[in-house]
Design goal:
Blueprint (H helix, E strand, L loop, with lengths): L12 H7 L7 H21 L5 H8 L3 H7 L3 H8 L1 H16 L3 H18 L1 H7 L7 H23 L10 H11 L6 H18 L17 H9 L1
Helix pairs in contact: 1-4, 2-3, 2-5, 2-8, 6-7, 6-9, 7-8, 7-9, 7-10, 7-11, 10-11
């Protein structure tokens, strides 16, 4: 997934202008839009977000012009396809920040995000990728980093997290977790849960053997790592 904005020429100007209108869709147009999103979610999840948009249009049974009329850019299609999942991630983070038990809140976020990463690679590819015109994704990724830093601080202040834990270690965990993705959904999820359980145990304060310095990693590193593979 390296998910990158398509380098192919964009849709014709008249198509882009039509996409910007807010008029209600006819029943057939709404059906086409829903079908495009359904196919896009499936394709992005199984193949990553760099799937050719022409292939998505073909599988959805529509022409490329119809796809571009509703989704002028790859980023707009990715954003709409995974809007629900993005909302789930935001909700999980918000709930964790209000959990009176900091350790439980931190574990909940890590476990749920890793499970989503293991079973829905299209969404994680989208969330951690860089789309110049997908402002919502960039904003939410920044918000996620800030929220994770607060969760880490709360857990440390409560004596529930080892003092040398660094927020960058969460990115390290996600990079490791991405390595178990690729088998069947069932196998990926089982492997992810096992890995996360091992790592969460090592985060507890009773494990106090000194660690090497943390790597300077942010969530954007997940995108760069995928590009290198």
């Amino acid at each position: 997934m390296p998910a990158q904005p398509s380098r192919k020429p964009g849709p014709p100007a008249e198509i882009a202008e039509t996409a910007a209108t807010d008029t209600p869709l006819r029943a057939d147009a709404q059906h086409n839009r829903d079908r495009i999103l359904e196919v896009a979610r499936e394709a992005f999840t199984t193949q990553g977000t760099d799937v050719p948009l022409t292939a998505i249009a073909r599988r959805a049974g529509v022409g490329p012009a119809t796809l571009y009329r509703r989704f002028p850019t790859r980023a707009s299609l990715v954003s709409e396809a995974f809007a629900e999942q993005l909302g789930i991630c935001v909700s999980v983070l918000d709930e964790a920040l209000t959990d009176p038990d900091p350790w439980r809140g931190l574990c909940t976020v890590i476990e749920q995000v890793c499970a989503m990463q293991a079973t829905d690679r299209g969404f994680t590819a989208a969330f951690f990728s860089e789309f110049p015109d997908a402002v919502d994704y960039n904003r939410e990724r920044t918000r996620a980093e800030e929220g994770l830093e607060r969760l880490v601080r709360r857990a440390k202040d409560a004596g529930q997290l080892r003092e040398d834990f660094d927020p960058a270690d969460i990115t390290l965990l996600l990079l490791a977790n991405s390595g178990v993705v690729g088998e069947s959904r069932q196998v990926s999820l089982a492997a992810s849960r096992r890995l996360v359980a091992y790592l969460l145990q090592s985060f507890r304060p009773e494990h106090t053997q000194p660690l090497p310095p943390p790597a300077p990693l942010g969530l954007h590193q997940l995108h760069k790592a995928r590009r290198a593979t």
